[in-house]
Write a structure and sequence with these properties.
By secondary structure, the chain is of the alpha+beta class. Helices cover about 45% and strands about 25% of the residues. A four-stranded mixed beta sheet has the order 1-2-3-4, sandwiched between helices. Strand 1 and strand 2 form a beta hairpin.
Length: about 110
């Protein structure tokens, strides 16, 4: 929930990217999705099936999407690193220059 709070607060901060939650992409539901960057963001708990995830990721890749995965443990142990990684990847894929100040201090949320 708090990762979503971080991603959606970008609207208030003037980020050129928008994020959606629980979006359907090519028949699959992504935890989070950045349409401009064609990036699906998944936060995996213990209930994910690695084989099904690999099939899904391969299908999405063939249709032009990148799937970025983090574990629940990563999100809770290193929230600022996860947040900055998501922004870097999405800004880069969307072809938008992002300065370090934007990536490191905009609306950081402690999880």
């Amino acid at each position: 929930e708090l990762l979503w709070q971080y991603l959606r607060c970008g609207r208030k901060r003037g980020w050129p990217l928008r994020f959606k939650r629980q979006s359907i992409i090519c028949g699959y539901i992504a935890d989070f999705y950045c349409p401009a960057a064609h990036v699906a963001i998944e936060v995996d708990g213990g209930y994910h099936d690695p084989l099904k995830d690999a099939i899904r990721d391969r299908h999405l890749r063939r249709t032009g999407f990148l799937t970025v995965r983090f574990t629940n443990a990563e999100v809770f142990a290193n929230p600022s690193t996860v947040q900055a990684s998501i922004l870097r990847i999405c800004f880069e894929r969307a072809g938008i220059a992002a300065n370090p100040k934007t990536l490191n201090c905009m609306c950081l949320v402690a999880l």
